[in-house]
Design goal:
The complex is a heterodimer. By secondary structure, chain A is mainly alpha-helical. Chain A has 4 helices and 4 strands. The radius of gyration of chain A is 23 Å and the shape is elongated. The chains are: A mainly alpha, B mainly alpha.
Chain lengths: ~140, ~450
């Protein structure tokens, strides 16, 4: 009887495992297709190149986008639309570096591509959005920018 | 070559990765707090060197431990010894190549996996080789399987899947939308951490079974309930990292709901507090148990922090601050490394108990140093994160430097305590590395 109980139990464990697996794959697919909601900003070719440069120079080690990355430098999600900074300000930093930021010796096309990428990121949303509306069940509605 | 000898090789490499991660952590933290870009190795190099070495310490030590314990469960040789050798050299060779790439500033990947993406291929092949051996071994274990075998199997399967998922960005469609791109990145990284947790927590249950001699524990329905809860979290509990993204609202709803299942684990820990206390009194003399005990205390502390971070309101303050770092350090050092140290010292105890007895006092002293230092380190990061989080957006240059100046005193404490962690954990790793160099006389399954 005990053996039977164990067998039934193992059987149900397997079923549960496979059910969870199916949910996982289904949910993953839904995430891939629909997680971005209505946000379908087209990334230009220059921005695509900029993204690859961002990765190739490991800018993420020091800078964050949407809070993801290192803390050596500031978060750059909205650097382009920042009234106190903007595109030219960012370009100077990328070109010359600072005491804490290396000069990566990028040419003007590479700098322009990185700026295009940052511009694309900037248009995708706001971070940090302290004025966002939050409700008790976890929904966060971004404030109007 | 005997199974335990093969595990010994990978375990020794894992300890070298740990020592290297600690050195790079100290160096990186120094540059972060006090240094400038004129350093020999810039921050963009030493950060991935530190993070990757730490990740590969965890993965290698978990793989070595799991394969050792699996081989002990079945009294036979590794089914595909050749594949295991191939795994070992491919795995270690790729990791060394990755570290060399960072040293020469060759990147191309993304957060936590910054190496040129082509190197993901040998890593994945090596993982598959190890998985083939693992599944061939567990086929020989008597059924029904204890919960830790389920956990190890889940760890092997889902690491492979999540690692593949973390490389989906290589397909242009996936990286063409930043919201999709970052969401998948967090999703994959969350599942990768969940997968290695499965390998490590499974090892912890196995060790507890061996130390206490209670064989029922690994077959109880309660253990399986927590296994399935852990599996659900592995699959779906990554979403609280994406609250700040302007993603679809249902992602946030599901993320929040899944995150809140962590309360069940927290309540369970509180309920079993008295039993744990009795258990501690009984086994505290045992070196591996001491590390397991430390991991449970760190689990409790980090769980409380994780629950706070999962509540959207608090998340809006903690995300992108040092609180996230405190959580990452608390879990990787406090939980993962403590369990892996328990596992390595258990293996040493099985094979060279006399040597371990000679070092007993020194190990206990280092155990206290690492845990006390880690507590200061952890609290300093939380305080620094709180100040940064409450200070508000750091979009204006002056604000960024001002906030940084405010948190420097806390980061100095973080650095001093980090020195203690590195010194104590590094000494433990070095000691284990040296002992593992010895030729064990008796195969573990014959003891």
């Amino acid at each position: 009887m005990k053996i039977l109980q164990v067998r039934v139990s193992t059987h149900w464990k397997r079923i549960l495992f496979f059910l969870l697996g199916i949910f996982f794959f289904g949910y993953s697919l839904i995430i891939y297709l629909y997680c971005s909601g209505n946000q379908e900003y087209e990334m230009s070719n220059a921005a695509k190149q900029g993204k690859l440069l961002w990765q190739n120079y490991n800018c993420n080690a020091c800078h964050q986008l949407y809070g993801l990355g290192g803390y050596m430098g500031p978060d750059l999600t909205n650097i382009i639309s920042n009234p106190n900074k903007g595109r030219n300000y960012a370009a100077i930093f990328i070109k010359n570096g600072t005491e804490r930021m290396p000069n990566l010796n990028l040419d003007s096309l590479q700098i322009s591509n990185i700026l295009e990428y940052l511009d694309y990121v900037d248009k995708s949303g706001k971070y940090p959005d302290r004025n966002a509306n939050q409700n008790w069940y976890g929904e966060i509605n971004p404030s109007n920018r | 070559m005997k199974n335990y000898m093969v595990s010994k090789v990978i375990l020794r490499w894992s300890l070298l990765f740990l020592i290297f991660a600690l050195l790079m952590g100290l160096y990186g933290a120094y540059i972060y707090i006090f240094g400038s870009v004129h350093s020999i190795l810039s921050f963009r190099q030493c950060r991935p060197l530190h993070v990757s070495a730490a990740v590969f310490w965890i993965l290698s030590a978990a793989l070595g431990s799991v394969m050792y314990f699996c081989s002990s469960l079945v009294s036979s040789k590794m089914p595909f010894g050749f594949l295991w050798h191939l795994f070992q050299w491919l795995w270690v060779g790729t990791i060394l190549t990755i570290l060399l790439c960072f040293f020469y500033a060759k990147f191309g990947g993304r957060e936590y996996w910054e190496f040129p993406p082509i190197l993901s291929v040998p890593l994945l092949i090596a993982w598959l080789l190890a998985s083939v051996n693992f599944f061939a071994i567990i086929k020989r274990i008597n059924k029904p399987y204890p919960v830790y075998v389920w956990m190890w199997a889940s760890g092997f399967i889902f690491f492979g899947i999540a690692f593949l998922e973390s490389n989906l960005w290589l397909i242009p469609w996936f990286r063409s939308n930043i919201i999709r791109d970052i969401t998948i990145q967090w999703k994959a990284n969350g599942s990768i951490v969940g997968s290695w947790n499965m390998l490590i927590y499974g090892t912890s249950i196995y060790l507890m079974e061996k130390i206490s001699g209670n064989k029922k524990m690994a077959y109880q329905n309660r253990s399986f309930l927590f296994y399935f809860l852990g599996l659900t979290n592995l699959m779906f509990n990554w979403g609280h990292h994406t609250y700040i993204l302007p993603a679809a609202p249902w992602v946030q709803h599901i993320s929040y709901a899944i995150s809140m299942t962590e309360w069940i684990v927290l309540i369970s820990i509180f309920r079993s507090f008295r039993i744990k206390l009795q258990e501690a009194n009984k086994y505290l003399f045992n070196i591996p148990y001491r590390f397991l005990l430390a991991s449970e205390i760190w689990l409790l502390l980090n769980l409380i922090l994780a629950i706070f971070m999962s509540i959207p309101y608090f998340n809006s303050f903690s995300h992108g601050t040092h609180i996230t770092v405190a959580h990452a350090m608390g879990t990787t050092i406090g939980i993962n490394s403590m369990i892996l140290m328990a596992s390595i010292f258990y293996i040493i105890e099985e094979n060279a108990s006399e040597v371990l007895k000679r070092h007993r006092k020194w190990i206990i002293f280092l155990w206290y140093i690492v845990n006390i230092s880690l507590l200061v380190f952890w609290l300093a990061l939380i305080l620094a994160g709180l100040i940064k989080g409450l200070a508000g957006p750091e979009q204006i240059s002056t604000q960024f430097t001002q906030i940084n100046a405010k948190i420097v005193p806390y980061l100095t404490w973080f650095y001093i305590a980090g020195f203690g962690v590195a010194l104590a954990l590094g000494s433990l790793a070095l000691m284990a590395f040296k002992i593992l160099r010895l030729n064990f006389k008796v195969p573990p399954n014959k003891i």
